[in-house]
């Protein structure tokens, strides 16, 4: 399909919709075109930039406020900000340090970090009127229960909390994001998400692209209201699907690249949108890592499916293209994620010059033979549990549990109670044809054994912490419950599903095991007498 209905090409999509509602011009368009030509943003289409006109940028790296021999201390203020995302349009956001995505934290394995999170958000969301309490989850970290962003461990506006992270796991792309009770969706959508990159000697010994050739891509979608603010419409808690695609906070950006390999760390930070990537050249994409870090061996794919909260690390070799060529990262879409003409494009790479540095320009055939989760076999499993994800009585549930049922049990009810060090297989069942659920298990890295009895997709053959459970699928994952004991969440990462209320918990160890996630390190008032970090 062409993009005659694309923005900036005369007749706008919204105009087309209006025309098609009048009936006349609709006859000249194929049916699915009139459907996909609908948009959700209310802002004038003329305010949206043409694809690949906004320059690409990456979030700034955060410097520690202080370091000791073992520990780096960081301070982040969660506060309102104004971002110019659409040229000339001011959009109110909530940002870590007032920016979205938040600043990137970079850590070497073996160093501890303490991150002070200060909630300086207003007492009420300006439009939605809820109180923006927060809880910060470092997604991909085996943190202690009290530092894991337990949804009910909230920090209210005017309070702060110091989170401590061990950073003992293998190198990986993590992200920190809000997890506040019942408002995770709105808070993340408003901008409370950022990257946290952990490196280790295994990764550093590899000749993979590094430095300015190691580039994060945080993908999110937005709906813009007439006044430039983000419009929240979660379709009755089903999901929010925006028509504007942002990469690192910029709409359909264009990045200048050299004729060599680049490593991209791709995070799908959307509320509910799944992506399926393809390069406009049709060339394969090399996948080198998943949520839990580098794969054992790279995988070549012609398409890559990406659910919410998953991270995929890919290498694209621009040496095959000539200077002046444009390569577009396209989105083929996934079922039950609403697509628009505008969501077919993500960003473009303009091959602008020869390589200025040709070191670290190799993807070796063996990347990470020691990825712990990848060694697990069904023979090692102590037990198999079944987790059924469904919609029951208007609520999203896991084995008929909701977070509300966990709260009512005084946080004692659990969906699973593995012993410390136990290996288990979880069989996650989605009997619906109407929606998919990216299921995230906190604390652990897992291996995907199979999907409806068939091998996982090539891009998923690495350590994972979030798995795309597609329509009518049963996915089996295997993991070892190590690093910590205590209670941790398991939930769908479609954020309206999570908030309403497809989230429960498991406990590593016997009842009472581990630090209490809420009472061990509660948030404190942030005042002029609060001691500096
Ligand atoms: Cu990324 Cu429990 O979340
Ligand atoms: Cu879901």
Structure description:
With 533 residues, the protein is mainly β. The chain is 7% helix and 36% strand. It has helices spanning 13-22, 31-36, 184-189, 201-204, 403-408, 495-499, and strands spanning 66-67, 71-83, 91-96, 105-108, 112-119, 136-139, 159-165, 172-178, 193-199, 214-222, 244-247, 250-251, 254-259, 261-268, 275-279, 285-290, 293-301, 304-306, 311-317, 326-331, 345-354, 383-392, 395-398, 423-430, 437-441, 446-451, 466-469, 473-480, 486-492, 503-508, 524-525. The strands form 6 sheets. The protein has a 7-stranded mixed sheet with strand order 12-11-10-14-19-16-17, with no helix packed on it. The chain is globular. The model is unreliable at 1-35 (pLDDT under 50). The protein binds CU-O-CU linkage and copper (II) ion. Residues 396, 437, 492, 494, 497, 502 line the site of copper (II) ion.
């Amino acid at each position: 399909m062409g993009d005659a209905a694309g923005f900036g090409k005369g007749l706008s999509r919204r105009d087309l919709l209006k025309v098609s509602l009048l009936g006349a011009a609709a006859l000249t368009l194929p049916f699915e075109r009139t459907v996909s030509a609908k948009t959700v943003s209310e802002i004038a289409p003329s305010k949206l930039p043409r694809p690949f006109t906004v320059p690409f940028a990456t979030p700034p790296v955060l410097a520690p406020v202080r370091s000791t021999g073992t520990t780096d201390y960081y301070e982040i203020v969660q506060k309102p900000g104004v971002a110019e995302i659409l040229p000339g349009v001011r959009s109110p956001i909530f940002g870590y340090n007032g920016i979205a995505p938040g600043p990137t934290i970079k850590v070497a394995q073996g160093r501890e970090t303490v991150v002070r999170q200060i909630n300086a958000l207003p007492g009420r969301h300006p439009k939605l009127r809820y109180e923006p309490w927060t809880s910060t989850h470092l997604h991909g970290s085996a943190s202690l229960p009290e530092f894991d962003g337990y949804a009910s461990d909230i920090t209210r506006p005017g309070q702060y909390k110091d989170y401590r992270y061990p950073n003992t796991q293998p190198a990986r792309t993590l992200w920190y994001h809000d997890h506040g009770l019942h408002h995770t969706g709105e808070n993340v959508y408003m901008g409370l998400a950022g990257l946290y990159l952990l490196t280790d000697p295994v990764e550093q010994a590899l000749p993979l692209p590094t430095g300015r050739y190691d580039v994060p891509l945080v993908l999110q979608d937005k709906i813009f209201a007439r006044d430039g603010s983000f419009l929240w419409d979660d379709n009755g808690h089903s999901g929010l699907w925006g028509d504007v695609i942002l990469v690192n906070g910029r709409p359909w950006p264009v990045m200048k690249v050299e004729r060599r390999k680049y490593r991209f760390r791709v995070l799908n930070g959307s509320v509910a949108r799944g992506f399926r990537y393809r390069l406009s050249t049709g060339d394969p994409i090399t996948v080198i890592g998943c949520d839990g870090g580098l794969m054992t061996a790279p995988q070549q794919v012609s398409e890559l499916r990406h659910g919410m909260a998953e991270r995929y690390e890919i290498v694209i070799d621009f040496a095959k293209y000539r200077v002046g060529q444009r390569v577009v990262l396209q989105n083929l879409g996934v079922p039950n994620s609403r697509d628009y003409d505008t969501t077919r494009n993500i960003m473009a790479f303009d091959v602008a010059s020869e390589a200025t540095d040709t070191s670290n320009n190799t993807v070796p055939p063996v990347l990470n033979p020691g990825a712990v989760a990848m060694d697990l076999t069904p023979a090692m499993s102590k037990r198999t549990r079944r987790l059924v994800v469904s919609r029951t009585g208007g609520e999203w549930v896991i084995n008929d549990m909701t977070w509300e049922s966990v709260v009512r049990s005084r946080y004692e009810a659990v969906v699973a109670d593995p012993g410390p060090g136990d290996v288990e297989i979880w069989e996650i069942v989605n009997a619906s044809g109407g929606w998919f659920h990216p299921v995230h298990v906190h604390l652990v890295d897992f291996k995907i054994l199979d999907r409806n009895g068939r091998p996982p997709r090539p891009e998923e053959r690495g350590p994972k912490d979030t798995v795309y459970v597609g329509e009518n699928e049963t996915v089996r994952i295997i993991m070892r419950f190590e690093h910590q004991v205590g209670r941790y969440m398991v939930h769908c990462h479609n954020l309206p599903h999570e908030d309403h209320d497809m989230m429960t918990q498991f406990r590593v160890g016997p009842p009472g095991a581990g630090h209490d996630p809420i009472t061990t390190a509660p948030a404190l008032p942030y005042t002029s007498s609060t001691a500096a970090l």
